[in-house]
Amino acid sequence: MAKAKEVTMKTSIKYHQDDPWRLSEATFDPAHLGKYEAIFALGNGYLGTRAATEEANTGEVRNTFVAGTFDRLNEDEVTELPNLPDVFQVALVFNGQRLDLNQGKVLDYERSLNLKTGELSRHFIWRFGRNRYRITTSRFVSLARRHVMGQRIEVTALDGDATLKLSAGINGQVTNTGTQHFNDDVKRLYPHHILQLTTKTNESQVNFAITTQHRLSVPDDRLGYVKTEMLRRRLRATYTLPLTKDDPLTFESITTVYTSRDLDVAYKDRASLRRQGYQAALALEKMNFRQLLTESAAAWADKLWTPMPLEIDTDHARDQLAINFARYHLQIMTPGHDSRMNVAAKGLSGEGYKGHTFWDTEIFLLPYFIFSQPEVARSLVTYRYLGLHGARTKAADNGYRGAQYPWEAAWVDDGESTPVWGATDIVTGEATKIWSGFIEQHITADVAYGVEQYMRATDDEEFARTRGNEIIIDTARFWCSRLEWNPDVDRYEINNVVGPDEYKEHANNNAFTNHMAHWNLLQAMQLIDRLKTNEPAEYQRLDERLDLAALRPEIEERLGKLYLPAPNAEAIIPEDDAYLTLPTIDLKPYLTAGRVGALFDDYNLEQVNHLQVTKQADVILLLFLFERHFSKRVKLKNWQYYEPRTTHDSSLSLLTHTNFAADLGLKRKAYSYYRRARDIDMGTNMNSSDEGIHAASIAGIWSMTVLGFGGVRYLDGRLRIEPNLPDQWRQLSFCLWWHGQKLAVTETNQTLKIRNLTGTRVVEIDHAGASVEIPTHDEVLITR
Ligand code: BGC
């Protein structure tokens, strides 16, 4: 079959038709530094670093983060993830001329991220005057050793001998877009070219030790004068090196980062961290850059690619690239090692959203981890357990009972972390108030939804008993106190909220919110009943803490009278009380503008509030999550109604539309939405990722592949598999975890094959309306 070609705009991004593990920048693109910094980010869930180039460039954003090390500038600001001192910028000066790719000529350029090994490499020839220099670089953040990152630069003079001045070090003169989070630096130089900076965040007082060792291919006795400088917030070593024509010279730096928040660091005071960093540098001396990189590449294979293969048989190479890209990023963005932290909306790849966690985790990211890495999913839901204190404080502050989860969460104890003021209103010229932290309340039910899904998909009874049950019940307790009785119509309502469609502020009875709250209440009631009958000791424990005896009848009463927006005569579920009465506008110009937020060139948020315009999947998401509660007719009608009114101004929207269209059998629509969603970060929109990649949308690439097209779904405690492959794919194969069993699934549009690899338990799945058993260590082949 002929290879299918994707129509690509002319950009510097290069996709390799024959290599689904490589993504490249084909020519140096100084106008789009942010794109590559984010999509080529490196990390391991603990450390994350943007791919700023070795040489400094105007407009670069040089970020390195350690997950969970939040700091707050002052009372007026919310907490954010501080940007660490940088170790990757290296100045190269050839015969007095500083390497600058905007000068001279750049030949044979390519920068590539190898998604399989986590290596970022770059090569080019720089011609300045009559001289050409070949520069080859490589960089990684170790997946095998959480605290370690490495960099290698190889330089060759091609046209004659030259002198190279190379300056590298630790640069603490970094900020989060101007905000300085560190103080109290201590700088140290040790023998063997080891440089160290210890520093501390201003408010949260997190200690950091950053230690870097420089290794040069020139022996020390030939190094000559090495200039080391301790500048104000900066340590730098400058090496003056003779370059002999055609004889490559290498510079390597191996860096470790330790902080006082690390669970694997025993002594967290400054002096101990300093010692830890120094000793680690000495211990690492026995390995060179290549060995450390090889070890890290092996960890990628061992942890991810070998145990959880995922292959698409297709001529559309970009689809396989996308799933590799997605799983690579999901791995580097997720702090699965420490349940006091969670995934940030931009991962560890940018300052956008300040490192905060949203409902993105439970609704969009968690399914990937539940089905692929249940131990990481456990850590993510444990984070919400640890956040109960903050959630209870938020509820109490607002006059409610139970646990009300923050819309934006940071450090577990912080509670609500959403900023109060946002962008400038184009009409009033004043800062726009961000209401989400006050009234985007569906997050509380979303958290319960994620926790319940985790518990039932994994059968992790220990988690349920020690953490999960309490979350389900205390979130329901919040809803009991939150519902408002409307005596005019004899029902409970939820008024003055922001739903997933954040273009409707102060909405009454947002359908998604009401249904999710109802689901939360129902889960809690059923759980209380189950515990009472089957686990009296657990019932009693929770009864003592949460007064289940009184709560149970209260929930039942609320459940009976909570208003659930239902399909009207035309089968449309009103997004909220007002939505269907609002005027419509011609959205076409904004939908075809090809950028997010185009609508706001002409309208302000207040005006959009009064239009039938939806930011992202809202009713559609409700129908997707609760597919068994609504008829196919209702789903289709609502699709037809809401799809043309949705701007997809949130990156969470397209993926839900893909999955829902796939469920509805709208194959062409589904694939076309898929391609748009797939390309949010990886595609040719060169500014979309400036502030960091879109974590939920990247998880969406997996979700569209396995849940949407693969037809895998968690539904009311059961696993359903109903393949729905696009015509562009011949076969999809993947592994997934269910009830502690690993299943290998192979799908075509005619067949479904499932093998139980773990084989300690029979697994039951739903398929084509029937239940199918997969015996232990056996395979079931279904012809469709
Ligand atoms: C979306 C939210 C989302 C947040 C972080 C916003 O633009 O509307 O639903 O949680 O981004 O990704």
Give a quick precis of the structure.
Helix content is 32%, strand content 24%. The chain has 784 residues and is an alpha+beta fold. The protein has a domain at 40-305: Beta-galactosidase, Chain A, domain 5 (Distorted Sandwich), CATH 2.70.98.40.
Q: Could you name the ranges where pLDDT drops below 50 across 5 or more consecutive residues? A: none
Q: What's the rounded overall pLDDT mean?
A: 96
**Share in β-strands:** 15-25%
Number of helices: 20
Organism: Lacticaseibacillus camelliae DSM 22697 = JCM 13995
Family: Belongs to the glycosyl hydrolase 65 family.
GO molecular function: carbohydrate binding; glycosyltransferase activity; hydrolase activity, hydrolyzing O-glycosyl compounds
Protein name: Trehalose maltose hydrolase, phosphorylase
Plain-language structure description:
The protein is an alpha+beta fold and 784 residues long. It has a domain at 40-305: Beta-galactosidase, Chain A, domain 5. Helices cover 32% and strands 24% of the residues. The strands form seven sheets. It has a ten-stranded antiparallel sheet, with helices on one face. It has a five-stranded antiparallel sheet with strand order 7-6-12-17-16, with no helix packed on it. The protein has a five-stranded antiparallel sheet with strand order 19-26-27-28-31. Helix 5 packs across helix 20, helix 9 runs antiparallel to helix 10 and helix 16 (619-625) crosses helix 18. The protein is globular, with a radius of gyration of 27 Å. The model has no long low-confidence stretch (mean pLDDT 96). The chain binds beta-D-glucopyranose. Beta-D-glucopyranose binds next to loops. Beta-D-glucopyranose (BGC) is lined by residues 345, 353, 358-360, 500, 502, 615-616, 650, 652, 696. Residues 25-261 form the Glycoside hydrolase family 65 N-terminal domain. This is Trehalose maltose hydrolase, phosphorylase. Residues 713-773 form the Glycoside hydrolase family 65 C-terminal domain. Substrate binds at residues 359-360, 615-616.
